[in-house]
Amino acid sequence: MQAPVVQSQEHLIEVNIAWLRQAEALLDRMDDAIYTASPRGLAPHKAGGHLRHILEFYECFLAGLDGGRIDYDERKRNLSVETCREAAQERIRWLIHQRIDSLVSVRLEDSAGCRIADPFLVSSVGRELQLLSSHTIHHFALMGMTLRALGVPVDPDFGMAPSTLRFLASQTPAEAA
User: Fold this and answer.
1) Rounded CA gap, 129 and 107, in Å?
2) 135, 77, 146, 78: which is closest to 106 by C-alpha?
3) CA-closest candidate to residue 133, choices 29, 1, 26, 8
4) Measured between alpha carbons, how far is residue 108 from residues 42, 62, 111, 123 in Å?
5) Which of 19, 31, 115, 136 has the fewest Cβ atoms within 10 Å of its own Cβ atom?
6) What is the pLDDT of residues 89-112, one digit of tens each?
7) Cα separation of 89 and 98, whole Å?
């Protein structure tokens, strides 16, 4: 029974690494001006801001593994990652090479205003990897929208959930239209 869990976790690690590599490839196709630009009418959305946010979720996840407690509200909000593609690429490369192997508790989002004795819930590494994957896709969609509004060509599949891509691929051309 243990082997399928490990295989699933390894699969989720590979999925998240694939998202990070996709972000790295996208960074290679733009300059810092585009990376930090906000399209007219979409302020404060910037590709750099969304990518910083994504990477900081991964950093919080990894930081929490050592103590077994993940707190996504404790993001460092490193503006150099938001304003400099090279800094973002460094963080991506660092994240890709981290080892993941632990059980965790996760802080309830925005629990600072709640009166809860222990704001941490038991979770699993696999569940948190799934959250990171979904969170990344969500922000990729926002980055894609932001970049397209700036006139930057973005792969049409960028920011689409794998289940949506599978569904669209299963449709005949008449059904997809």
Assistant:
1) 15
2) 135
3) 8
4) 29, 17, 5, 11
5) 115
6) 999 999 999 987 666 888 777 656
7) 15
Provide the token pair at 125.
Answer: 């590494």
Nearest of 48, 44, 106 to residue 74 by alpha carbon: 106
Using alpha carbons, select from 103, 135, 148, 137 the residue that is nearest to residue 121: 103
Among 55, 57, 37, 56, residue whose Cα is nearest residue 47? 37
Q: How many CB atoms lie within 10 A of CB 22?
A: 18
How far is 34 from 146, CA to CA, in rounded Å?
10
H helix or E strand, kind and range, residue 96 = helix 85-96
Provide the whole-model pTM: 0.81
Answer yes or no: is pLDDT of 175 > 70: no
CB atoms near residue 93 (< 10 Å): 12
Model pLDDT for residues 133-168, shown as the tens digit of each residue? 999 999 999 999 999 999 999 999 999 999 999 998
Looking at residue 71, its amino acid is D
